[in-house]
Design goal:
alpha+beta, 20 helices, disordered C terminus
Length: 628
């Protein structure tokens, strides 16, 4: 499978994973993501910081001070009637009582409260009772109200109270962490639908008609964006008492400030320790339920709530699919630190955009997108690392193989320029040929394993000598080799290094043959030819290429081996090579010649010299003879 196809498959699988995660969570599965989302929501709320709420609601708290004065909780109905009566006299828009008045009390107290409720605009709290811990939706129901949480029944205020007030359901929806994340606006049983307490209060305070659309609510002409199940997402302004709060004790003391009540929404609720509902929020470990309800009322009246409607869910779905694809694409595009940095930059940009949207009133899901992005990116990155490791091993092995076939300078050049010698290059170079004599006959009569060991040792000696002198072995020719000096570029000392290589080979091969068993060493000899001149260097082959050289210089160097044998020598050197190397002899070797020799495949003659080791038998020429 080609790499583009592999990347395409990875992107398709990533998109399917993201779509599957989003669909599974939207269907009510993967509930652990709700806990993660609640935690991330708390963090984003704290990053946003405390906000100044619109000053439309006043909470009259039945707090510890009131309980200490009265000595009991719940507050006696007569005392509650006094609180309500005082508030009504200050002319609020609406009085909302966030207390469940479902049980009978003293007859006088109930009658007094009932009469008081008739004196002003009132909304009383009811509660929805569900058959299980979770609110359920009947899948067979039709219409937009099918998504409403279905209660078993409603716990309503006593008729004596409900006859003088409107009623709203006060339940809130909490996340996995226990923190209220939204307030359902509508509830239903098998035969009726009830408005929530905050929605009933807001409708009465605004005096606007309520319209239930397919995916949102309308308060008069203003749209109230809600979640998929007509729940109002809430975002907290700050810690408890951020919304204006006064103690009910100020009513009993006669110190209640009229401006805190007049023309405002007043919510009466409990904040006494050990009584009423308390919830954890991003700012408080315990916030009274009346403040959560008041937050929802403020959102509805002021229109400053956080948006998490169907358009936001579409954006969440796109993010769950496209963000992982983008990250995987970046990692595939740049399989390096640059790709990782680009992917990290995209993640930071997404996180910043998510937080920015939250602080500006749009609640984009973070947990689902992370669940959609992290696993495929981690798996793809792991596969990339594994493939990269395998590729590194392959390249290391290939480099090792190349090191055995090419000189270090050529290796470095090929690494920098992979197209080196893709087009033939004409230049000056020195060429050395070496060949074993008698090897063919020996191989016919000797064990193949022994012959193989001989050949390996011979090649290893040539390799070491060529590398030490900076030459390039362009090929092992069975029992011989061709060594080139002048790659990757012609150097002034190419001829001198070729001459040194030829002499070192002469000595090294001579010692090596002497170390072999007589049955083998006595039957082997060698010959070396070296020449300097114009060559054509190129790369031959298609899928398996090798560097080689052609031209008259190569042919002459090869034929000089024959000239050496014909003149009872082992190393034949052209006059051109000696001149280019500026060679004047050495104290431990002798030159004899020159002679004018004809070589096959070439017209004219070549001036040839023969080099012999001074320590070799029968070659006791003096240095003067060498230079003459």
């Amino acid at each position: 499978m080609t790499r583009p196809v592999q990347i395409l498959v990875a992107l398709v699988l990533t998109a399917l994973w993201g779509a599957g995660i989003y669909a599974a969570h939207a269907a009510g599965h993967l509930r652990f993501l709700d806990r993660l989302e609640a935690t991330l929501t708390d963090w984003r709320t704290q990053v946003r910081g405390v906000q100044r709420p619109p000053d439309v609601v006043t909470i009259v708290a039945i707090d510890d001070t009131v309980v200490k004065r009265g000595g009991s909780y719940p507050l006696p109905r007569a005392d509650l009637a006094r609180v309500v009566d005082t508030i009504v006299q200050f002319k609020p828009k609406v009085v909302a009582i966030d207390l469940l008045l479902v049980d009978r009390s003293a007859a006088i107290g109930d009658a007094t409260l009932a009469n008081t409720l008739a004196t002003g605009p009132m909304v009383l709290a009811a509660a929805a009772i569900f058959p299980s811990a979770s609110e359920t939706v009947e899948p067979s129901s039709a219409g937009p109200l099918a998504v409403l949480p279905q209660a078993e029944r409603f716990l309503l205020p006593l008729p004596a109270f409900a006859d003088h007030a409107e009623v709203g359901v006060v339940n809130v929806a909490t996340g996995q962490s226990g923190s209220p994340l939204s307030v359902p606006m509508l509830f239903r049983t098998h035969d009726k639908v009830e408005l929530s307490f905050p929605l009933r209060v807001a409708t009465r305070a605004l005096d606007k008609p309520l319209t239930i659309a397919s995916d949102h609510l309308m308060l008069g002409e203003r749209a109230v964006p809600t979640d998929a199940d007509f729940a109002l997402p809430i975002t907290y302004y700050g810690p408890r008492r951020t919304i204006r709060t006064v103690s009910a004790q100020s009513i009993f003391d006669g110190t209640l400030d009229r401006t805190a009540i007049e023309n405002r929404i007043v919510v009466i609720g409990a904040s006494v320790a050990g009584g009423g509902d308390f919830y954890p929020t991003p700012f408080d470990s315990l916030m009274p339920g009346v403040e959560v309800v008041s937050t929802a009322i403020t959102h509805l009246v002021a229109g400053d709530g956080i948006v998490r409607d169907y358009r936001v869910h579409v954006a969440d779905a796109l993010a769950a699919i496209l963000l992982p694809m983008l990250l995987v694409g970046l990692l595939a595009w740049r399989r390096s630190a640059l790709g990782i940095m680009a992917a990290a930059a995209v993640m930071i940009a997404w996180a910043s955009l998510n937080a920015f949207a939250f602080t500006h009133g749009v609640w984009l899901n973070a947990a689902t997108t992370l669940a959609a992005a992290v696993p495929p990116v981690a798996i793809f990155a792991g596969v990339q690392l594994w493939v990269g490791g395998r590729r590194t091993q392959y390249l290391t092995a290939k480099s090792s193989s190349l090191a055995r076939l090419q000189a270090p300078a050529v290796q470095e050049w090929l690494a920098r320029d992979p197209n080196f010698l893709s087009k033939p290059v004409r230049q000056n170079a020195a060429v050395v040929f070496i060949d074993l004599s008698g090897f063919t006959g020996l191989s016919e009569q000797t064990d193949p394993d022994a012959i193989q060991e001989v050949l390996k040792a011979f090649h290893a000696l040539i390799d070491r000598t060529a590398v030490d002198c900076g030459g390039t072995i362009t090929g092992f020719l069975g029992d011989g080799a061709m060594i080139l000096f002048g790659l990757p570029g012609a150097m002034p000392d190419d001829a001198a290094r070729a001459l040194k290589c030829a002499i070192d080979l002469h000595r090294g091969i001579e010692r090596w043959i002497a170390s072999l068993p007589p049955a083998i060493g006595d039957r082997l000899g060698f010959k070396i030819g070296a020449h300097f001149g114009d060559i054509v260097a190129s790369r031959l082959g298609e899928s398996h290429q090798h560097i080689t050289a052609t031209g008259d210089t190569v042919n002459v160097a090869n034929r000089l081996m024959e000239v050496a044998v014909q003149n009872d020598a082992r190393l034949a050197l052209s006059d051109t090579l000696l001149d280019a190397a500026d060679f004047h002899g050495a104290p431990d070797g002798t030159l004899s010649g020159p002679i004018l020799a004809r070589v096959r495949g070439r017209s004219g003659v070549v001036t040839v010299w023969f080099w012999r080791d001074q320590s070799g038998p029968g070659h006791a020429a003096t240095k003067a003879e060498v230079i003459s």
